[in-house]
Amino acid sequence: MATAQVAAFLDGNFAYRNRHQWVALAAISPQAGLAVIAAEDQRFGDHAGFDFEAIRKALQHNAAGGRVRGASTISQQTAKNLFLWSGRSYARKGLEAYFTVLIELLWPKQRILEVYLNVAQFGDNVYGVQAAAQAFFSKDAAGLTRREAATLAAVLPNPRRFRADRPSPYIERRATQIEAQMRALGGTRLLDTL
């Protein structure tokens, strides 16, 4: 958020404002938490910050060529979004690992999920699920439906390119896949096990 604000200021856009409003996990639809777990980190409740199986698969996939695939967990993304800059470098990845270990040691999974939902970018200058729900669905995060939550989660890989308010056919398909994963994970009962 700070990086975007500074970049806009340096470009002379003094009117630029990030859309963001922090809300407690209890004020967020359980569908939103389940959707980001289904889309981003299906083993979120089972790992200690790093999904080594996903890392192994990503390394194999990337070695074969084609589009680069990542394996960052929700914990890693939370560390990056809170403390670090965007981009790819060994230094940033090392710091991300350090902060991920600290977050996992100090916070319960529900707190990590709450922070992630409040700092993730869901669109151009739209940060956090509350701002996204208001900007794209004209409602508070507490009222998000399963489909709306899945649509928000579907844009997470590239929220500047993909739009939740005008989803492309790809985002529509991705949201349908996320909904299927949400059901396969056991629905919102999964959140009670965190």
Class, according to the CATH hierarchy? Mainly Alpha
Mean pLDDT score? 89
Helix content: 40-55%
Give a quick account of the main beta sheet: strands, pairing sense, barrel closure: 3 strands, mixed
Instruction: Indicate the radius of gyration in whole angstroms.
Output: 16 Å
Percent in strands: under 5%
N-to-C CA distance: 28 Å
Kindly name the structural category.
mainly alpha
CATH topology: Penicillin binding protein transpeptidase fold
H and E string: HEHHHHHEEHHH
Specify the overall morphology: globular
Q: What is the level-2 CATH architecture name?
A: Orthogonal Bundle
Number of domains: 1
Q: Low-confidence parts lasting 5 or more residues at pLDDT below 50?
A: none
Q: For the largest sheet, list the strands in their spatial order.
A: 1-3-2
- The total count of strands amounts to 3
The helix count comes to: 9
| Annotated CATH homologous superfamily | Biosynthetic peptidoglycan transglycosylase-like
